[in-house]
Every structure is written in structure tokens, then in C-alpha cells.
Amino acid sequence: MKYKNVSVLGLGKTGVAVANLLSDHGVRVFVSDNSPEEKLKKYIPLLKNGIEYETGGHTTRVLSAGLIVKSPGVPNDISVIADARAKGIDVLDELEISYGLIKPKVLVAITGTNGKTTTTALVGEILKNAGMRTVVGGNIGNPLSGMVDKIDGSTAVVLEVSSYQLEGVRGFRPDVCAILNITPDHMERHKSMSGYIEAKKRIYMNQTGDDVCILNMDDESIRDLFLKKEINPVSKTLFFMKEMQEAAIPGGGVFYGASWRDGRFEVTLPPPSGNREAVVNARMSVNARLKIPGRHNVENALAAVCISAVCGVPAEVIRKTLIDFPGVEHRIQFVREIKGVKYINDSKSTNVDSTRTALDSFDTPVILIMGGRDKGFPYAPLFDRVRKNVKALLLIGESAEKIKKELGGSAQIVDCGDLAAAVRKASEIAVAPDIVLLSPGCSSFDQFENYEDRGGQFIRQVNSL
Prior knowledge:
The protein is α/β, with parallel strands linked by helices. The chain has helices at about 15-25, 80-85, 95-100, 115-130, 165, 185-190, 195-200, 220-225, 295-310, 315-325, 350-360, 385-390, 400-405, 420-430, 450-465, and strands spanning about 5-10, 30, 50-55, 65-70, 90-95, 105-110, 135-140, 155-160, 175-180, 210-215, 235-240, 255-260, 265-270, 285, 335-340, 340-345, 365-370, 390-395, 410-415, 435-440.
């Protein structure tokens, strides 16, 4: 807090939270956003007294500050950031600022292309049920900057962190981190798959020998990081996989981490003393049938079980939470059944792999509502699954033409334009036991404020049928 004047880029939920945090610490804050004021009217009243702002573009006033703090949605390559760096003005991300102001009991950070929200929420529930004072946030719910005053030395902090948040970190160092999976996403931001992976790797770059990094060895990209020795050589590396194999860890050695077989989660943690014979004292078995559907949720649960075991949670607490956990909003969320047709909200699906995962969760015919703002990756990898699972493909948003071109011939395709029209069309053609699935595979920003807004509108449309 050595700077008297700080500019904040972005006037959304995160920008408001970090601006208010800085103001509380006696900093004079100026907030700037490219969007017109009309689009920001729900956030502007949340700014504390004395915080000035501008909308509709970034003026040179942004540069009259000793530090610029960037919201995660603001790209690194915009001109005002280039101008700031040319003038020697430091640019930091919101996550970095907030991290520097907390000293929790334990900090858990979870990233991955898909499953972050479910896993983060599940870990939060497990730690709460174990009696820990726990806050959950980051890319899910509240930004870290909005929770700083709730965190002290007795608090467990569980964060979902995105590639947008990670690409700008410098000193951020979680006690426990996990990478769930890495599949193509955010190409419009990171420009290449290698750039995207580099951002994800930053979650463990500052970890020390006292910290733990948990990796999914069923994921090809993550396994490749391990084989290329691109993981942190200092922190303790644990793994999770659906079925543990003798040759699971290249090079051999004892398997430390979590595996799953026939509904039983098995965890083996490394002994603190380094004595391999002591590993029997760090083994845990949890027999639990998940309430949330889909094999992808087995992977999410494996990561959560491994994280919770590292944090010292007893097996019985983990077991009961796994059985009771209902999942999260907007991720394969049951909305309503009408005349034997089930309506499912998967608005959290913002990439092709997430839509594939959703389709794999159902055996009955699916009427798929898909589309939104394109993120720069191909839709063609869905062709075979759509041909196999999908009765009709209803398109919305800006990406409709591209999806139609790449998935043409896989199913009946109808360009509906918007979500209300798609829900009406789905209700006309669906018969029991069909599934009407909103799983867009795209970002929401062409027609909606965010994926929560998109999912909420879907739920309202379905409930109006």
C-alpha cells in the first residue's frame, strides 16, 4: 500500500471489490471501464464514497497513478496497459493484490479447464463440515478482494482460479493447489494452447517444499507436463486418477494421491518423515456413492478427496459430504420435468470439452441448445457425439454459423437466434424420455451478462412453459 494513487481497470464485481479494498486502506482509487455506463449501472452504486470512475473507454487519467490493478477480464494487450508499462507504471492483477493482504491457516487454489467450480464448492463444503472456518471464492462467487476482511490465521481459504487470474501472478503461492484438466479454451485470450498451459502452470510456480501440488494423471496434457519435468521440482506432488495402475507414475515409485474403484476412494499421503514404512499411517479409504451424476464428477471428487485428506479431514466427514453434496448451479443442474421430458441447465459449459462431458452424462436422446460468443476453438470434435446422442441441435448467439458449418450433418440443426426461441422450439419437439440440455460450449457475453445470467434466463424460460 505504498502507492497513494491507484487506477483499477474493470468496473464489474472484481473491480468494485478491489477498488473498495484499496480505498479502505487509505489509497485514492480511480476506476476505468470500456463499457458504457448503462451496462455498469448495477456496479457503480457499490463503489465506496470518494472513489471516482469513468466509463466508455480508458482515458489518460488512468496513467496518473503509481500502480494499475487489473481485473481478470481485462486483456494484457490493450493500449492503456502498454502505455502504462512504457511509462514505468507497475501493473498487478487483483489476485496478487488480495493475496498480499491475507495470512490464512491454509490456502487452497484449484484450476483446470472444467470442473473448477464443482471441485472448489465441494472442498469448501468438506472443510466446513470438518469444523474449519472456511471461505470460498475467487473465480466462483466472491473475488478474493471482497473477502479479505473475513480472513485471519484460523481461516481456510478455498479459491477457484482461472487462467485469466493466473497469467499475471507474481508472488501468489497456495499451500495446496490442484490442476484438474487442461483442454482447449480461451484461445481468443491466450492465442495458443501453449500460452493457455503456461498460464495454468503459474498456479504452482512459487510453491516451496512445504506445499502440495495435486495433478490429474488421467489428463493427457497434465501427464505431459510431468513427463517433460515441467512441474515444480520442490513442492510435494500428489496425483489422482480413476483407477490406480502399477505403472501410473512414470519412473516408478510409491503412488501418493487418490484413486477410485467401484465406488471407493483410496488416498495415500506421503509420510512427513520421509520414512516409506510410515505411509500406512497416511492411508484413507472412503466408500461413498456420489449424488452428482457423471464420470467427470468422479474426477472432481477425487481431487476434492485428495485436497481434504492433505488438510487433515477425517474419512467419515469426507464420506458424508460426498453423499450429500448436490452439485452447483448451472452445471448439469436439473431444472424441471414436463411430461417426461427433463430440462437441464449446463450454462457453465463455456467450451467444447465441457459440452462433450455434459452429453456423456446422458443415455437418452438429447435436444441440445448450443452457441454464444466464439472463443477460438473448433466445434468439429463434437461431431461424433452429437451424431450419437443428439436428436436436434438448436443454435443461439454469434457462433451459430460456425457451429452449423462444423457440425452440419450430425443432427437436425435449427438456428433459433436467442434462448427464448430455443426453449420454445425444444418444448415443441421433445417427447419423453428426451433431455433438453442447455450446454452452450461458448461464452455468454454476446447476449448475456455472464453464464449465471444465461442459466437464470434458461430456468425462467423453462418454468414459464
